[in-house]
Structure formats: C-alpha cells, structure tokens
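Project outcomes to date are best conveyed with an example. Our students and postdoctoral researchers have been running inverse folding experiments weekly, and each run begins with a structure described purely in tokens. The record below, which covers 86 residues, was selected by the lab manager from last quarter's runs and is presented without edits.
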C-alpha cells in the first residue's frame, strides 16, 4: 500500500504513528478499492481443504503405524513364548 504511487499521496504523512484501528481501516479500504488480496483471504478455502486432506492422511497413516506396531508386538510376544517353551 505504501509502495502504490497512486495511493501514497492520499495517506497520512507518518502512517506508522496512527492507532491500530486507523491502520486497519486504511488497509481494509485499500483492499476493497483496489481488489488486492493483501492477506490471502481468497486462498483460505483452498488452504483449508488441503490442510484437512493432510490431516486425514496423517491420521490414516498414524492408525496404520499403530496397527503395524501392535502386530509386531504380538509377533515378538509369540516368538518369546516359543523360545521360552510356554
């Protein structure tokens, strides 16, 4: 926003001294009038989709790892029992 020559002249001389609410209002106004997606809001739905997909895959792989670990524990216990003569 500060680098936009068409807007720069309309901003206060020292915008860093403005209260946070005033800064937020200026940024919001700039985003609305220029159509610039300053915060990536338009990308949020797709980001959420891929994050949910990654979480589901992670959960699936975590479940498989637990099952494999339990199966290995049972095999190890069975071998231990065989060698111990149980």
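After processing, the design step wrote out the following sequence:
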């Amino acid at each position: 926003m500060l680098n936009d020559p068409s807007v720069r002249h309309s901003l206060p001389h020292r915008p860093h001294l403005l209260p946070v609410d005033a800064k937020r209002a200026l940024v919001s106004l700039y985003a609305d009038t220029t159509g610039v997606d300053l915060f990536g809001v338009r990308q949020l739905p797709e980001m959420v989709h891929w994050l949910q997909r990654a979480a589901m895959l992670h959960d699936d792989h975590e479940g498989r790892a637990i099952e494999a670990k339990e199966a290995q524990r049972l095999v190890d216990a069975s071998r231990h029992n065989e060698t111990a003569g149980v």
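The mean pLDDT is 89. The two ends are 77 Å apart (CA to CA). The training component of this project remains on track.
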